[in-house]
């Protein structure tokens, strides 16, 4: 028998070092040359075979057990965000990007799991695929690495991944959140350009005012969720950017609006997408203007497989204790492109709590002061490693 917990605890300092090294070199998008080189080098030290340039800078490692069996993929994302860090830690980013969502920790924890699994591959019945993915933040990485064959040769039968931080406030530091079924929403971006006719603000009758149209559109779009959605089915529409005009007394030629909509049901997602444009068209055409409308699709909802999740919960009970497992009753409206993997194969995406008020680690994701409690890293690695072993060997 392998005592995964004890073995992972022995390499906790190494996991922290990997995380801190990666934290200093954050890169964004599909092209992560320094990050990919670092991960590749560590896998080489472990003697793990891998392929590079999978879906951009993605890496897929293979740990083949001595006994034949199924294939499970363990997935971590590697990209950062275009945010200037303001944490004050001595391992802060050395460039203008930042690991403000914890992907450096996901990568480090997967390296930890890989080290333990590779050491004991004679005990593995089947194969473990290690997927280090680029560009989760822009929602291109999962699609691209899957397209490049990450789930094939050998064909993956299940997938397991995690997210650190405080996405669910009830998941306290050192605990994990587990959900059955829908656990995160789809996320899509929309862009609207409202075209009018510019003129002097003192003579609005000579122009066509896109600012007035924008105001009505912003208000009307919000009624899609409040008046047209089933109240028990979560959905949200947020407008995050409104831009137009150059002077206080000039009606501009156009106004641009950008936002996002989230849903946990496919039917709602399609309905919202269609209704936004219908509302824009109705208001703009009724007020003598014109418009452009564009949807940038994001990931679908994250849906955990119920049977796989039940099995993983049993694993988690042995690793961290039942008292540290929080069942998540409702999904978050945040999104994650692990949804693309879960659309292909069954699996689970779980959440590791890592905010700690006593240590002042309280700042939310995607902000310049975001950080996590490094003391929980061993848990993530142990849960990934033991989860893979238990699923393959049962």
TrEMBL record:
<feature type="binding site">
    <location>
        <position position="103"/>
    </location>
    <ligand>
        <name>Mn(2+)</name>
    </ligand>
</feature>
<feature type="binding site">
    <location>
        <position position="101"/>
    </location>
    <ligand>
        <name>Mn(2+)</name>
    </ligand>
</feature>
<keyword id="KW-0479">Metal-binding</keyword>
<dbReference type="GO" id="GO:0019877">
    <property type="term" value="P:diaminopimelate biosynthetic process"/>
</dbReference>
<dbReference type="InterPro" id="IPR036264">
    <property type="entry name" value="Bact_exopeptidase_dim_dom"/>
</dbReference>
<keyword id="KW-0464">Manganese</keyword>
<protein>
    <submittedName>
        <fullName>Putative hydrolase YxeP</fullName>
        <ecNumber>3.-.-.-</ecNumber>
    </submittedName>
</protein>
<dbReference type="Pfam" id="PF01546">
    <property type="entry name" value="Peptidase_M20"/>
</dbReference>
<dbReference type="GO" id="GO:0050118">
    <property type="term" value="F:N-acetyldiaminopimelate deacetylase activity"/>
</dbReference>
<feature type="binding site">
    <location>
        <position position="163"/>
    </location>
    <ligand>
        <name>Mn(2+)</name>
    </ligand>
</feature>
<feature type="binding site">
    <location>
        <position position="366"/>
    </location>
    <ligand>
        <name>Mn(2+)</name>
    </ligand>
</feature>
<dbReference type="InterPro" id="IPR017439">
    <property type="entry name" value="Amidohydrolase"/>
</dbReference>
<dbReference type="InterPro" id="IPR002933">
    <property type="entry name" value="Peptidase_M20"/>
</dbReference>
<keyword id="KW-0378">Hydrolase</keyword>
<feature type="domain" description="Peptidase M20 dimerisation">
    <location>
        <begin position="190"/>
        <end position="281"/>
    </location>
</feature>
<dbReference type="GO" id="GO:0046872">
    <property type="term" value="F:metal ion binding"/>
</dbReference>
<feature type="binding site">
    <location>
        <position position="137"/>
    </location>
    <ligand>
        <name>Mn(2+)</name>
    </ligand>
</feature>
<dbReference type="Pfam" id="PF07687">
    <property type="entry name" value="M20_dimer"/>
</dbReference>
<dbReference type="InterPro" id="IPR011650">
    <property type="entry name" value="Peptidase_M20_dimer"/>
</dbReference>
């Amino acid at each position: 028998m392998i005592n995964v917990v004890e073995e992972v605890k022995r390499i906790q300092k190494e996991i922290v070092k990997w995380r801190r090294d990666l934290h200093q070199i954050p890169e964004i998008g599909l092209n992560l040359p320094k990050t990919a080189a670092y991960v590749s080098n560590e896998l080489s030290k472990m003697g793990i075979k891998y392929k590079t340039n999978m879906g951009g800078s993605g890496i897929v490692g293979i740990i083949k057990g001595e006994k034949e069996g199924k294939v499970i993929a363990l997935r971590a994302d590697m990209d950062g965000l275009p945010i200037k860090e303001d944490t004050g830690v001595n391992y802060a980013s050395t460039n203008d990007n930042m690991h403000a969502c914890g992907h450096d920790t996901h990568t480090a924890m997967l390296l930890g799991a890989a080290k333990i699994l590779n050491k004991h591959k004679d005990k593995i019945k089947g194969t473990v695929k290690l997927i280090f993915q680029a560009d989760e933040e822009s929602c291109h990485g999962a699609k691209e690495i899957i397209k490049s064959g990450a789930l094939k040769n050998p064909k993956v039968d299940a997938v397991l991944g995690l997210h650190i931080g405080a996405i669910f406030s009830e998941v306290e530091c050192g605990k994990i959140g587990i959900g059955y079924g829908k656990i995160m929403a789809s996320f899509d971006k929309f862009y609207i350009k409202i075209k009018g006719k510019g003129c002097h603000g003192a003579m609005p009758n000579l122009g066509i005012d896109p600012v007035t149209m924008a105001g009505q559109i912003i208000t009307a779009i919000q009624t899609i969720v409040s008046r047209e959605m089933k109240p028990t089915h979560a959905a949200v529409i947020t407008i995050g950017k409104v831009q137009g005009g150059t002077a206080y007394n000039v009606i501009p030629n156009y106004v641009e609006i950008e936002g996002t909509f989230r849903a946990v049901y496919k039917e709602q997602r399609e309905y919202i997408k269609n209704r936004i444009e219908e509302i824009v068209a109705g208001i703009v055409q009724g007020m003598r203007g014109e418009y452009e409308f564009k949807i940038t699709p994001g990931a679908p909802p994250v849906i955990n497989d119920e049977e796989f999740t039940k099995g993983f919960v049993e694993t988690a009970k042995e690793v961290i204790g039942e008292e540290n497992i929080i069942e998540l009753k409702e999904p978050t409206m945040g999104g994650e492109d692990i949804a693309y993997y879960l659309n292909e194969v069954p699996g689970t995406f779980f959440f590791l709590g890592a905010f700690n008020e006593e240590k002042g680690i309280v700042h939310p994701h995607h902000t310049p002061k975001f950080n996590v409690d490094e003391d929980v890293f061993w848990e993530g690695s142990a849960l990934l490693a033991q989860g893979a072993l238990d699923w393959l060997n049962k």
